[in-house]
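Weekly puzzle thread! Below is a chain. First person to post its structure in token form gets bragging rights.
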Amino acid sequence: MNATAVHTIETAEDANKKALHSDMISPRFYTTDFAAMDRINIEPVRAEWDKMMAEYEGDNNHDHFQRDEAFADEVASGMASLSPEMRQEFMDFLVSSLTSEFSGCVLYNEIRKNVSNPDIKQLMTYLARDESRHAGFINLSLRDFNLGIDLGNLKRTKKYTFFKPKYIYYATYLSEKIGYARYITIFRQLEKHPEKRFHPIFRWFELWCNDEFRHGESFALIMRANPHLLRGANKLWIRFFLLAVYATMYVRDHTRPMLHEAMGLDSSEYDYQVFRITTAITQQVFPLALDTDNPQFRRGLERLFEVSKAMEKAKARGGLVGKVQQGICAVQAATTFARLFFMPVIQQDLSPQVRMEPAW
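Winning reply:
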């Protein structure tokens, strides 16, 4: 399967432009209704909430994001084995991952500064702390190649998307949980095949993704404490965000198939394994799940990827013909997404206990 073109990243300017770039599959920055966030009530889950806050305060990953003496040697030996094309895919992966982590840091910090609710203020302080560490750790690896991102400039100049608080809950919960599933799947693969670990950053993925898992737990508690978010028309929003997150991941991952091949993974098999883990986790809070093993669902995601490739070609062509082709692609993507949205879903009962353990 051929990927769509990955934007070439050769200089720090290229890396910063990539981080600033906005399209359907790029990580975004968000803002929200802070007054509504301030009114969140978590009393129905107070016991579990206080236990989780104690875990955050304990900060068991405080010393995790420190590069050891072997880091530089592993970078040198691992990167020397990569082709120029594979190197580009890895740089794209690092920039995209950093942008996603820093997006969370910015959002959580803004919420923290604009609310007085002590529960939410405390949570956002811890979330921003963790995401800042993650983004900084990735940026160190980019700086190894003189491709560091100016995070201050990124915060000031990247376009922001407004999301209602409930959209933040759905989307952020999913992004944190799917982030866990992605990282733990990669970690387990490279744990079995250390010879395929071409960069040392992957050694940090297990404890790193446990941060992501706990972040998702926070939003699970918020939603379970406010059950109206999981009923009625809101179930349609849950379905929408599940599909949007899965479709975005599928298309993005298939634009860089060499990255997964280098790890001994097939992009499609990897994605569906991540979807299965995420589905198992989200039973704690979502009353429905997508049937990702349905052949029709899989054909739909493949169709979205094909349309994405056609869109890239249309953009490269430019001119009137290119614009017409882009319009056709947009209609095709919307139609395919709608068909996937209206596919039958799997109804599921919520688990009696909200909190889960990262057991994958």
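Puzzle host: Confirmed. Bonus trivia for everyone else. The CA atoms of residues 95 and 325 lie 29 Å apart.
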